[in-house]
Amino acid sequence: MKKSFQIGSAFVGLIVGAGFASGQEVMQYFTSFGIWGTVGGLLATLLFIFLGYTFAQLGTDLQATSHKSVIYHIGGRYLGPILDILITFFLFGVAVVMFAGSGSTFQQIFGIDTRVGSMIMIVLTILTLLLNTTKIINIIAMITPYLLTIIFIILIYSIFTMDLSFPEADTMAKVQASAAPNWILGAFLYVSYNLAAGAALLIVMSGGVKDRKVAGMGGILGGVMLGGLIILIHIGMFAKIDVIAGADMPTLALAEQIHPVVGILMAIALLGMIYNTAVGMLYSFIVRFIAPDSKMYKPSVVIIGLLGYVLSLVGFTTLVGKVYATMGYLGFALMIAAVIAWFKKRKPEKIETRVSQNF
After folding, report:
1. CATH number at residue 129
2. What angle do CA 169, 228, 200 make, to 5 degrees?
3. What is the crossing angle of helices 212-239 and 36-61, to 10°?
4. Distance of alpha carbon 26 from alpha carbon 51, whole angstroms
5. Under a CB-based contact definition with an 8 Å cutoff, are residues 28 and 179 in contact?
6. Spatial distance between the Cα atoms of 340 and 45, rounded to a whole number of angstroms
7. Domain span at 299
8. Which of 63, 165, 219, 268 has the fewest CB atoms within 10 Å, i.e. the most exposed one?
9. Distance between CA 346 and CA 74 in Å, rounded?
């Protein structure tokens, strides 16, 4: 169970990036639909559980060291290479966005120059990636319970200090900008978008686990925690929609209203989530081309990390931002492929035989 919890927590830590933890994504995909956003959160939870379970077990069955083997397995000869290229591109792109985002966050919270803030995140990311895979998973997983605690405090505060009636809150929530036309599509798009970013690391993490039940349980626990976070953040923001309407960082606004110290703790959590995402994305990108035990791995970490820093300074984030919507469609393709793979119900021993024959 301990290993399953580590996998689940690391999966959560990777997906819960700055947009998630700040409440902005939850606002657009769930809270903007009012009370129905809660139902959307439950639907997203079920999707995360099923997909987390499926990809984690596939990672174990194929003993994957990168996402490539699993993507080719579920995508086949024609779709597999396309999905592989797109996922690989987005892994590096999201990592660059995190580097740039950390610079802005350091400046906003601590008044540090954006270039210095980005460099701090780059150095931390590179140092982390020089560790072995187990230590990387443990570090990413450590931050998740901390974030859960902060979010729970915000939820309790929001509910017990709610000044609006449910109909009033529902009306105000529905005025907020939405990322989808309805709550059903909002839930699917949100899961799809995050799956495109998070599936690669979940596959790599599960590839080092021998017991598919342990890996599958890790995927399930990750899905439950992700869904729980979505619902908790949604309810907290719904209860205080009159306070955080229009805010760029809703959860940070709620935290600062409780107490300045809680605001600082939430800000640290945001930086932690950015760090988690940067580490997970860059690691998944590098191991797609270079094995962790290769002599080229460590030099590549430094070179690619520094390249990411340079790109974060020259406006590369604008390019990545424009193609983020494509990640949603990529995620839909992964979801469909995962469902097909699940229905085929291939036996582990057959998969293992086929993999052994290929190497």
Report:
1. 1.10.4160.10
2. 125
3. 160
4. 19
5. yes
6. 20
7. 2-344
8. 165
9. 11
